[in-house]
Design goal:
Layout (H helix, E strand, L loop, with lengths): L1 H14 L1 H29 L11 E10 L2 E5 L6 H8 L3 E8 L4 E5 L2 E5 L2 E4 L3 H4 L4 E4 L10 E5 H8 L9 E4 L3 E9 L12 E4 L14 E6 L4 H7 L1 H13 L3 E8 L3 H4 L12 H28 L1 H13 L4 H38 L10 H27 L4 H5 L7 H37 L9 E5 L3 H4 L2 H8 L5 E7 L9 E6 L10 E8 L4 H5 L3 E4 L9 H4 E5 H7 L8 E6 L5 E10 L14 E4 L9 E6 L4 H15 L8 E2 H7 L2 H35 L1 H9 L4 H35 L10 H27 L3 H4 L4
Length: 797
């Protein structure tokens, strides 16, 4: 019986080729889009879950607020790990990790710059899951100057990873490290990856207030984190209060598997994802599939008049409603299976482009061959059943006698339902069009917004050599001898990378009140930095290398700090910035105020800032150079030549400031590109449905069209007749979609401290685009029907 149903289904698909192709193509595109997004979402949700003990691993982070500011840090200080272990018996183990282990590796004649190397305690191998190929996990990082390589780095250095064990490699300044282990490469779905792990120096120490590394805990029980967080105040009072004062402090333990999508703290170990995008793309995947299913439901119910007599005959010869429903389910399942097979080929062909857009390395069979096949089969049947539920109930419900006469009966409820589905399709499509437009506008806004400095023609590079850092003055002097080099400055950090340092200043020197303390960004600069970046000086003066006091006793602040403190005349005011080796406050004088400028991406609000000159020759290891726009290549060549004279071992790796800031929006750019692609797919699927509906309408009314033409109807009259009702539905969709799009995009824009507003005309354009596309789709078939020879359509009369 089931076999017979599928035979009938195949014959119907073959008989009505146009509608079968439209249904299969629409569903195949919908399934392909759904599956691609599912692969993406599954990968994002899988982060860090490869760790066997993932449910018991937590990262320690800290939050603090007071009248003068706040901090939300992913970093902790050196003493945290031991203090937590000794204070809470529920902690099984702890590990400290520092991201500062990278550098130039030398092995004989080989020299490699490897930046993704971490310092870590040996307990990392007890907490996280890394597979050792060579070496011993229990002791690989217990000795000083030990290093564990990943398989890829070992292969680059030694050719054969098995040859790496016990060999000595050298870092900058001939610092030797003995290879004590080789592990498999870290899975890409980890919130931090690395090429190697180095042991910490013996006797690692640090103050409680100096947050420089990451601390992870392995708890004996998953729920143990609640008890530790509940005792955060006790921990603060016991260990941190002497350093932090009366700060409202909260210790938080982040579950390992939540970090990638849920954590957006300052100084994250790497760029994280965002759970909001997972929700958005999951919804997009589901909605695209729903649009494809709606097409099937609409076209199948619209074609009810074609099948009405067949249903009547089947009922006369004994078919009951259950059997008819099974027959229609067989049709929808067969169609879904064919569509899914085609979708598999589409997915395989699209994956390279999808991976490029998303920055992933996804594979159709990434969850294993067997599971993928089972998932596809199950998905086909579920999609087929969901697609066929309404048509099966609707078509099998016709009464026998009217069906034999070809009478459909009252179709009011069915027509309303079908119209509602068309409206729903285009609501989704218009919201996605509006979303793509607003994302593009916001990214264009952040790319072109005035950042408070001139980022054009300005590049920065890191001075790798310690010896070269002591000769920065001579390097600057030689660079400025070329007219292509307009100005040169020095700073401690490359701005635009979201890693500027923080420190607290006491606005009333000598005061012990936390309300007089302000947490500010601290950027070390020389006298050339402000003119090189063309930052506007609002009050006072710039630093001078001829004024000795400027190097240790002077600071420049930004306008935000002035505004928050309510100072009318900040120039000449004194503040304290920490204490010296004798415990005395370090008093400095404010000599100038600069206009606010962004050091982070525009997702971050400008915060109070303090600019200070380098304390010694080694401080300030980033060179900023403004070059002429006349001959950029010659400028870069000259800079490289001069730099090589001071550092023959390393070449200058340039980063243009505008690119530094653009890199901060890579995630949003990728998400916007993906949304645009899926918006186009949603439009295609929805238009396929409209094309099918107008085609069927034209077939049903072919004789009416012929008569109208004989009676003098023009082509535009026929087009209006066939497309008018459908275009009304698209217009209704636009009116409903506008407020939904406005609400959704305002939610998304809240992630940016500086953002555009959602303008009404953007929503109008989105609706207009949808109407234009829909009208073009409908008109193509309507015009074909309107220009057909009426004699042929009336031949049988």
């Amino acid at each position: 019986m089931i076999r017979n149903y599928f035979k009938i289904a195949w014959r119907n698909l073959h008989k009505y080729k146009v509608f079968s192709i439209i249904n299969i193509l629409g569903l195949a595109i919908g399934v392909a889009a759904f599956w691609l997004i599912t692969l993406y979402v599954t990968d994002e949700l899988s982060y860090d879950r490869y760790n066997v003990k993932a449910d018991r691993i937590f990262r320690v982070v800290q939050h603090g607020t007071w009248n003068g500011g706040s901090f939300n840090l992913a970093l902790t200080s050196v003493p945290y790990a031991d203090a937590l272990k000794s204070s809470y018996p529920g902690i099984e183990d702890a590990v400290r990790i520092s991201a500062d282990g990278g550098g130039k590796i030398t092995l004989g004649d080989k020299k490699l710059d490897v930046n993704d190397i971490l310092f870590a305690d040996n307990s990392i191998f007890n907490i996280f899951t890394y597979h050792f190929l060579y070496g011993d996990a229990t002791s690989s990082l217990t000795k000083p100057q030990s290093i564990v390589l990943t398989k890829s780095l070992a292969a680059k250095l030694f050719g054969d990873p098995s040859l790496a064990l016990d060999k000595v490699i050298y870092f900058d300044n001939n610092f030797p490290n003995t290879v004590t282990g080789v592990i498999d490469d870290v899975p890409a779905n980890s919130h931090f990856t690395f090429s190697a792990l180095r042991s910490f120096s013996p006797g690692l120490t640090g103050t409680w207030s100096n947050a420089t590394l990451f601390t992870y805990l392995l708890l004996k029980d998953h729920d143990g984190y609640k008890k530790i967080e509940a005792q955060s105040t006790n921990f603060f009072n016991k260990f941190l209060k002497p350093s932090f004062g009366d700060v409202h402090y909260q210790l938080e333990l982040q579950p390992l598997t939540s970090i990638h999508l849920h954590s957006h703290l300052d100084y994250e170990i790497s760029n994280n994802g965002n759970i909001t995008y997972i929700y958005v793309f999951s919804a997009v995947a589901l909605l695209i599939l729903i649009i494809a299913i709606i097409n099937y439901v609409n076209l199948t119910t619209a074609r009810s008049s074609v099948r009405i007599k067949e249903i009547g005959v089947r009922k006369v010869i004994g078919s009951d409603r259950k059997q008819l429903m099974l027959m229609f389910f067989a049709e929808s399942i067969l169609l879904a299976v064919i569509a899914t097979l085609i979708a598999a080929f589409i997915i395989q062909a699209a994956l390279p482009y999808f991976n490029h857009l998303s920055g992933k390395n996804l594979s159709l069979l990434q969850i294993s061959y067997t599971k993928t096949i089972v998932a596809f089969i199950g998905f086909s049947f579920i999609t087929g059943i969901l697609s066929g539920i309404y048509p099966a109930l609707f078509l099998s419900g016709f009464r026998t006698i009217p069906a034999m006469k070809g009478q459909l009966g009252s179709q009011a409820s069915t027509i309303i339902f079908r119209k509602s589905l068309v409206v729903f399709q285009f609501i989704i499509t218009i919201v996605m069009i509006a979303g793509s437009c607003i994302i593009y506008q916001q990214l264009n806004y952040v790319s072109n917004k005035d950042l408070g400095f001139n980022k054009a023609q300005t590049l920065t590079f890191h001075i790798r050599s310690h010896e070269a850092r002591t000769k920065k003055a001579a390097m600057k002097q030689q660079l400025l001898q070329n007219p292509l080099i307009e100005s040169v400055g020095v700073a401690g950090n490359p701005i635009g990378n979201n890693d500027i340092g923080l420190r607290d200043i006491n606005t009333i020197p000598g005061s012990n009140s936390v309300s007089d303390t302000k947490l500010v960004e601290q950027l070390v600069i020389d006298e050339g930095f402000i003119p090189t970046l063309q930052i506007k000086l609002l009050k006072g003066r710039n630093f001078s290398n001829t004024i000795i006091a400027d190097k240790t006793k002077s600071i420049i602040i930004n306008q935000t700090l002035v505004d928050e403190m309510g100072w009318k005349n900040p120039v000449g005011r004194t503040v304290s910035v920490g204490i010296d080796q004798k415990g005395n406050p370090i008093i400095v004088t404010i000599i100038g105020v600069v206009k606010d400028f962004n050091t982070y991406s525009l997702q971050h609000k400008i915060t109070p800032m303090m600019l200070q000159m380098p304390a010694d020759a080694m401080d300030g290891d980033n060179l900023y150079v403004r070059i002429s726009k006349n001959n950029i290549q010659a400028s870069l060549a000259y800079i490289s030549k001069i730099y090589s004279g001071f550092d023959a071992e390393n070449k200058a790796e340039f980063h243009f400031l505008d690119q530094n800031f653009a890199n901060q929006y890579q995630t949003e750019q990728k998400q916007g590109s993906l949304l645009m692609v899926f918006t186009i797919l949603a439009i295609c699927i929805a238009c396929l449905g409209l094309f099918g509906l107008v085609t069927f309408t034209a077939e049903q009314r072919v004789k009416e069209i012929g008569i109208r033409k004989i009676l003098g109807a023009r082509v535009n009259d026929i087009v209006k007749l066939l497309s008018g009702e459908l275009m009304q539905l698209v217009l209704i969709s636009t009116l409903i979609a506008a407020p939904i799009a406005w609400w959704a995009m305002n939610k998304w824009l809240q992630g940016f401290a500086y953002r555009i507003g959602v303008e009404w005309w953007v929503l109008l354009i989105a609706g207009g685009v949808a109407i234009l596309i829909a009208f073009s789709t409908v008109s193509i078939q309507a015009i074909r029907s309107a220009t057909a020879n009426p004699v042929k359509s009336l031949r049988n009369e």
